[in-house]
Amino acid sequence: MKVCAFLTDGFETVEALAVVDILRRADIKIDMISITGDINVKSAQGVIVQADELLDEYVFEGDELLFLPGGPGHKSYYDCKDLLELLKEYNKKNNRIAAICAAPSILGNLGLLEGKKAMAFPGFETQLTGAVIITAPERVVTDGNITTSRGMGTSLDLGLELVRLIKGEELAEQLRTSTQYI
Description:
Layout: E1 3-7, H1 13-25, E2 30-34, E3 40-42, E4 48-50, E5 53-54, E6 65-68, H2 81-92, E7 97-100, H3 104-109, E8 117-118, E9 132-133, E10 140-143, E11 146-149, H4 155-167, H5 169-178
Parallel strand pairs: 1-2, 1-6, 2-5, 6-7, 7-11, 8-9
Antiparallel strand pairs: 3-4, 10-11
Helix pairs in contact: 1-4, 4-5
């Protein structure tokens, strides 16, 4: 399985790159895809990241895991109609979708969390429309095809959960130990 991480100006640096790092350590193919029309994307913390691809040029195979990092730029996801349609299409096919911090609000506002356990950065729970809200001390939750997490401090938890879902518990635990996240 391949993972697609969508970047927009104002994304949260650690939320995106910690997940990318953990997945690449697990030899999971992950492409960073810019939705801005520019290959260089500036994070909320002023870090410029070169995406692997532009959304307009990316060829989806239909079985990717779609990942939305949070940060103040998450509002730009609403302006990207192609991404919103892709999220709805993937959810309808029960394909995996992950989001962290403020980004689960996108899934909630699209109606993709109906009846599912989900979490978001505190204060965004009201936008998780139809979800069963999970709060601290939980750090990440997977319900069916949707995985959500709370924020920058839970980024490694999210990455390890995605490794567990894609490649199994044993590899996730090996990575937890080898990265000293124990």
